[in-house]
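pipeline stage [seq->struct] | target=Signal transduction histidine kinase | organism=Runella defluvii | residues=610
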Amino acid sequence: MRVSALFILFLVSSLRLVAQVITLSDTIQKYAISYPSYLEDTHASFTLGQVEKEAFVKSNDKVPDFLGNFSKAIWYRFDVINKSKTDDWYLEIKGGFMHHLTVYQQHETGAFQALKLSGDGDFRSRPVFSNNLVFPIPVASGEKLKIYVRATSKTLIRTSMSLNTMQKLYEDNIRISYGDGFFTAVAVALLLYNLFVYFSLREKVYLYYIGYISTAILHTNLVAGHVQLFLPWLDVLNTTTILPIVSFFSILFTNSFLQTQTYAPFIYKIRWPMIAICLLPLVFYAVGSYKVAILLVAIFVFTLFIYWLVAGIWVYRKGFAPAIFYIIGFGALALMSVVFELKMKGWLEESYWTDSSLFIGAAIEAVILSFALADKFNFYKKEKERLQEDAYRQTTRFARELISMQEAERKRIASELHDGLGQKLILIKNKILRAAQPGAAASIHLSGEALSQNVAEAIQEVRDISYGLRPYQLDLLGLSSSIKSLVEETLDAAQIDYEIYLDNVDQLFDNNAQINIYRIIQECVNNIVKHAAASQVSIHIKHQSDQVKITISDDGVGFNHHLNHAGFGLKGMKERLQILEGKMTVTTKQPKGTLFEFVIPLLTDTSYGQ
C-alpha cells in the first residue's frame, strides 16, 4: 500500500504542467494572459535550458504578485496559436517600474528568438516607442509558438501581459495617454497656482502641498511608464523609492493644513515617528535589502491611509470645517488607488477609466485640496473677523469698566481730600483764627503744638494720596525695594505671615513696565488681604536669563478663576500683562489657596506696549 502511494506521488510530481494556450483569431481583440503558469527562480540563476525541464505552477490569481527579493526572477510560460490572417502580433507587458524583461520565442522548428528590454531604461532601446514594454511576436498564420518570459525587478514583480495587434495597441493607448496627459495637466496647473500663492503668502502649508502633489504626479507617471521617457538615466526611481517621499510630504501637509497641534495634539506628536518610519524603506533599499524595503512600503502605505482618515475625522469633529475637503480629497485618492490595484490584479476589467484611475485620483485630490486651502483661508478670515469683533467688544467693555474705575478713583480721591485733608485744613484754619483773636495770647504755645501736629497729619494725608497715584519708592529706591516695602507694609498691617525672596530686578524694565509690574503685585497682595482669609503668603521673584518669573501663593479659601468676576482686578492684571507681553497662570484648589504665576519677558528694545 505504501509502495503504491509513493509510486502515485512520484508519478504526479513527474507530470509536466500542460502549458497555457492562447489562440489568436480576432485582430481587434486583446488577448489577456490571465492565470499564467509561472516558475520562481529564487536566485535568478536558471538558464533557459534548465527552465524547460522545470515544472511550472498555474497561478490562482489573474495577475500574480511577487516581491522582487523573495524570488529574484520569475519565469512565465504559455503557447500561442495563430489562427488569424495576420502575423503582426505584439506582447504588451504593463509595469513601467519593472527592471529587466526577456521574452524567448521557440518556433515549431525548435529555433529560439530572444529580446531583452528594461523597464527603467532608455526608450530608444525599445522596438516600439511606448510607455509599456512591447515585444514583437512574429507568428505565421497557423503556426504555434512556445513563449517564455523572464522578469526581474527591484520592487514588485507584477506582469500584466496581453497579445495585441498594432492597431489594437494604438487604439487603446491613444485614449489612455490622452487621459493621463489631461489629468496630469490639471494637477500641474493647480500646483503652479499654489506655488504662486505660496510666494504671495509665504505659508508653509502651500509648500507642503506643492511637494506632495508634485511627488504624487511623479509616482503616477512612474507607474504608467512615462517618467522613463524623460528621465531614462534615473533608474533609481520606482514605487519603493518614490512612495516614501510622497508619504513624507503628505504627513507634513496633513499636520500643517489640519492644524493638528491645536485640534489633534496626539496626531501632531506622532508626526516625526511617522516620518521616520516612512523614510526607513529608503535606507533598506540603499543597502540592497529590497525585500524589507518593499514590505515596509506596503505596510506603511496602508497605515498612512488610516492616519489620513483618523486625522481628518478627528479635526473635523473638533470644529475645523475645512477638514471635510481634506477627507474627501484623500478619500478620492484612496478609492482610485483601490480601483487601480483591482484592475492590476485582474479583478476589474481593463478600460479607459481603470487604466487611468491613478491619474484621475491624483487630479481629483489636487483639485479638492486646492479648494481645501482656499476654504481654510476663508475660514481663518472669518475667524479673524470674529476675533476682531470679540476683541472690539472686549475692548469696549474694558473701556467702560476702566472709565468706571477712573470715576471711582476720582470719587475716592475727592472723598479723601474732602473728608481727610479738607477737615484737617479747616481745623488748622480755625485754630489759627482763634490764636489771632484778642485775649488768646496765653494759649498760643499750646495751640502751636497742636497746630504742628495737625499740619504733620495733613502732610501725611497728602503723601498717602500721592502714593496711591504713584509710588514714590519706584523713583527713589527702585522696583525691588518698592515691591519689598509694599509687601511688608500691607501684610504686616493685616497681620499675615509671609516669606519673600526676590532677585534684583532694577534696571531690567522701563518706567512704564515697572509701574505695571508693581500694580500687578499690589493687586494680588490686596486681594489676598481682602478676600483670601489667608494666614501664610509666599512671594518669589526670579530673574531667569531672558525673563522674570513672579510666583505669589497663599493658603486662603481660593476662588474659581474661570468664572466672570465683577471686580476689575483680574482683568486689570491681564491688561497690564498684555502690555508687558507676559503670561499669567492661576492655579486654585478651593478651599486650599491660590497660586499666581507671572512670566514677563525681557524685551531687548525695552519697548513694552509699543
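stage status: PASS
auto-comment: The mean pLDDT is 80. The chain has three domains: 17-170, 173-389, 478-610.
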